[in-house]
Specification:
By secondary structure, the protein is of the alpha+beta class. It is built from eleven helices and 30 strands. The strands form six sheets. The chain has a seven-stranded antiparallel β-sheet. The chain has a six-stranded mixed β-sheet with strand order 3-4-2-5-6-7, with helices on both faces. The chain has a six-stranded antiparallel beta barrel with strand order 23-24-29-26-25-30. The relative contact order is 0.09.
């Protein structure tokens, strides 16, 4: 009987779908059309800024109302990790390709992400209404990239659509439901809900909130939710239309308000019957403290701030790419929200601990008013921008400024001493022949004897063919006066050099 009851709890669940592809191939237009035509009373819901999630209702071929949840993942390269996470949380991916522009590099990048995550996918050829549309070329180009559609040597289902006009969109939704039926996505209605954090941010009025996708189980009022090290009650639970709800189940996008700390985008979450169960399952995560040590070498301490967890993740990824001759940044603290007094004190603590000034960068955030005075007091360098690449360009300049400069000796010429002449105090006249490069007047020389340096001198007079010269080239003989404390002997080698910073 118990097994029979368990089987009754396992039911088909709506598919979660990610739309991926080149940034200009119509992902947003497709989602806009689906929202407008498949959400009751035309209500439009966008519950996050960086990854949006929408639940739509579509009648299948039998006339039954079926739910589909859509994710809209950004296409910018800096958000590739979010794009990958979108594919991981999704059950089905839509790879959208323009019938005008055909396959682009970003198309292939999205395809690789889908394949690596082992996600079933459908190709949607968009913009078929355009005069420059060439559907056959797109299919052939896909085949050249080893993406084989049905009818073109493969099994990948394909829909031809115009997201702008809505042509073929119904057929695409039917295809999604067909793939979902074949994949047999199921969930257990009785177990506590679990899933993934799509996005999180700090709302000045409401506190810490996060967008979640439930992948299994049910979440009800009174339960406690844990995402990473963050805990939240279910007092304020909203659906994707921002309406308060008392419960939600698998495949639903929801927003939870009231986390005790900011969960990371991409964190898995679990729910519990009460706070005691949640706390017992929480593993304390190590946070930044002023005693954090910076490893030896060229590492510049950096604190990064952003308006959302997704943006923070993207910024961190770009920062980690910045390196100049084994010199880079060490992110000692990262968090969401305005740059505040706590950040400045942390920066000062790192300076005291490691003797290096900490930089602070902020993406889409400001410095709170109280912190501006403290910033001047500590002389902490801060840069903010709403464009990631402006911040990374600024960081590259700061890294070059702080990169340790090492003086290195570069030998520009060598000469063998053939004869020695008079010597008075610290000046000696010698004659020789340049064997490599050139010897330059008024420059320093190393005095080498049997390949070992025995001292340093300076050329204060140089002649070639008894005529004063600024330099003597390879193969020529010379006479010179050297200022040195060392007695130069026949057979010694003088190396002309310069010191350079590297």
């Amino acid at each position: 009987m118990k097994n029979e009851k368990q089987k009754q709890n396992i039911v088909l669940r709506p598919p979660v779908v990610a739309i991926m592809g080149h940034v200009d191939h119509g992902k947003s237009t497709l989602l806009d059309y689906i929202r407008k035509t498949n959400i009751v009373e035309g209500e439009a819901g966008g519950i996050t800024q960086r990854i949006s999630a929408y639940e739509v209702v579509h009648k299948n071929e039998k006339g039954e109302d079926m739910k589909i949840t859509f994710l809209d993942t950004p296409g910018h390269e800096a958000f590739s990790s979010m794009r990958e996470r979108g594919a991981q949380v999704a059950d089905i991916a839509i790879l959208i390709v323009s019938a005008e522009d055909s396959v682009k590099a970003q198309t292939i990048e999205a395809y690789k992400t889908i394949i690596e995550s082992n996600t079933p996918f459908i190709v949607a050829i968009n913009k078929i209404d355009k005069t420059g549309a060439n559907i056959e070329k797109v299919k052939m180009d896909l085949a050249e990239k080893e993406i084989y559609l049905e009818g073109y040597g493969g099994k990948v289902p394909c829909a031809e659509i115009s997201a702008k006009q809505g042509t073929g969109v119904g057929e695409l939704l039917n295809l999604i439901l067909l793939v979902a039926e074949m994949e047999n996505f199921t969930g257990d209605t009785l177990v506590p809900a679990e899933g993934m954090v799509l996005e999180s941010n700090l709302d000045p009025k409401r506190g810490i909130q996060a967008t979640l996708i439930i992948k299994n189980g049910t979440l009800e009022k009174g339960m406690i939710l844990k995402a990473g090290g963050a805990i939240c009650g279910t007092r304020i639970m909203e659906d994707f239309l921002n309406k308060q709800i008392d419960n939600a189940t698998f495949s639903s996008p929801i927003r939870m308000v009231g986390f005790d700390s900011i969960p990371k985008a991409g964190d898995n979450f679990r729910s519990f019957k009460n706070k005691k169960e949640a706390e017992s399952a929480t593993i304390e995560q190590k946070k930044f403290t002023s005693s954090a040590k910076i490893e030896r070498g060229c590492e510049v301490p950096l604190i990064i701030k952003a308006d959302t967890s997704g943006a923070l993740e993207a910024l961190e990824k770009e920062v980690n790419k910045i390196k100049i001759e084994n010199c880079g940044f060490r992110i000692v603290q990262k968090s969401i929200g305005a740059i505040n007094e706590s950040d400045l004190k942390s920066a000062e603590a790192v300076r005291n601990d490691v003797g290096k000034g900490t930089l602070i960068i902020g993406f889409n955030v400001k410095i709170d008013n109280h912190s501006k005075d403290i910033c001047e007091k500590y002389q902490i360098i801060i840069e903010t921008s709403d464009i990631i690449y402006k911040l990374t360009d600024w960081l590259k300049e700061r890294l070059e400024e702080r990169r340790p400069k090492e003086e290195k000796m570069e030998v520009s010429g060598k000469a063998k001493i053939l004869r020695t002449f008079s010597k008075t105090k610290e000046k000696q006249i010698v004659g020789g022949k340049v064997t490599e490069g050139k010897i330059v007047a008024d420059g320093p020389v190393r005095i080498m004897r049997r390949e070992s340096e025995i001292g340093i001198g300076k050329i204060i007079g140089l002649e070639k063919n008894k005529v004063k010269s600024k330099e003597v080239e390879e193969g020529s003989e010379f006479g010179m006066m050297v200022e040195t404390k060392i007695d130069i002997a026949s057979g010694d080698v003088l190396e002309s050099f310069i010191m350079v910073n590297k």
